[in-house]
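From the pipeline queue, job 12 of 40. The input is one protein chain; the requested action is below.

Action: predict structure.
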Amino acid sequence: MVPAGVLRFLEFALLSLPEDGTYSGTTGDRECVLDVFSGTGSIEVEVPGSEQTLYKTGGRSDVFSGPPCVLYMPPQCSFHVGASSPAFQAGLFFSPATRPGRPVLIEGRSVVTRQVGEGSFQRTVHTAISEDLPAERVLAGETMNAPGCWSSFPPHKHDRRNPPQEAPLEEVYYFQIQPANGFGFIWTYTAPDDPDGFSSVFVVENGDTVLLPKGYHPVVAAPGCRLHYTWVLAGEERRYGQWTMDPRYAALK
């Protein structure tokens, strides 16, 4: 689902492997965020000029079972993924990059978990890749809504260069919902003075992806449904939290 425009800084692919299944790839002129959604596996990564490094990843049964295990890979890496449990699933998020670096495994206490908001818009946010990690563009994490609760609320956007308040960042949301036949909604809309404005409401179901090139983007889970989305941000600047609240709702913060 693309409300408007085309993403310049983000690509997303879903990797699903059976037990003992394998996948090989390269990052090329991109950096990569590999977020293990379920199952366990091993990932061999080779950076030019260094030996291969083996990472043991995953361990949760699904995204509702705890914080993520995320592997960051810089440009020009070769990697090989091997599943060691049934139904290994991960998200691969890529963004253009040129800066050399090293792979970093973010798991356990390295993931910052917070309760954000209050009342009907309280949610759990796991931040895996923040500005502390020396990536070039990407920021990444996961958010979980309890049944009937909102997130990305009060509505905020990050599509204009307006320092120090706002920095332009594209975003991808990948949704998973429990039970699997559950649903939620996302409202994507622009500021009133946007010359290419839009306002769209999408039903999101388990396994849906929403691309967010710009605009506000509040999310709500249906009653009886836990809603989870993996979020990755990227743009010309890399500043988490630099966004503008919709002034109609900003007082709620």
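Job complete. The chain has one domain: 11-252.
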